[in-house]
């Protein structure tokens, strides 16, 4: 699974840290990266960072969700 966190601020960086922790907790085989280039954020449609992308699909955007919500997103994505 390829996970990209689109972030452009310190608060947004928490999303990457939380996502990495959830990935580790679930034992998911995933590569978590961060992208902060505003042009790339705009290309992906993330106009209000942070954004969370899994395997090319934006699955959350605009807020930093709690760990249980990220866990739900990852679990749902892994099952599909």
TrEMBL record:
Q: Which InterPro entries match?
A: Thioredoxin-like_fold, Thioredoxin-like_sf, THIRX-like_proc
Keyword Electron transport appears in the UniProt entry: yes
Q: Which UniProt keywords apply?
A: Electron transport, Transport
Show where the Thioredoxin-like fold domain sits: 2-74
| Basic and acidic residues composition bias: residue spans | 68-80
Looking at the record, which segments are called Disordered?
A: 59-80
Q: Which residues cross the membrane?
A: none
At the top level of its lineage, which domain of life is listed?
Archaea
Q: Which family does it belong to?
A: Belongs to the glutaredoxin family.
Q: What is this protein called?
A: Redox-active disulfide protein 2
Per the UniProt entry, what species is this protein from, by scientific name?
A: Halorubrum tebenquichense DSM 14210
Organism lineage: Archaea, Methanobacteriati, Methanobacteriota, Stenosarchaea group, Halobacteria
């Amino acid at each position: 699974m390829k996970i990209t966190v689109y972030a452009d601020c310190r608060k947004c960086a928490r999303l990457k840290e939380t996502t990495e922790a959830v990935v580790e907790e679930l034992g998911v085989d995933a590569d978590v990266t961060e992208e902060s280039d505003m042009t790339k954020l705009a290309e992906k449609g993330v106009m209000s960072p942070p954004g969370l992308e899994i395997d090319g699909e934006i699955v959350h955007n605009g807020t930093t969700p709690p760990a249980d919500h990220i866990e739900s997103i990852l679990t749902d994505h892994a099952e599909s």
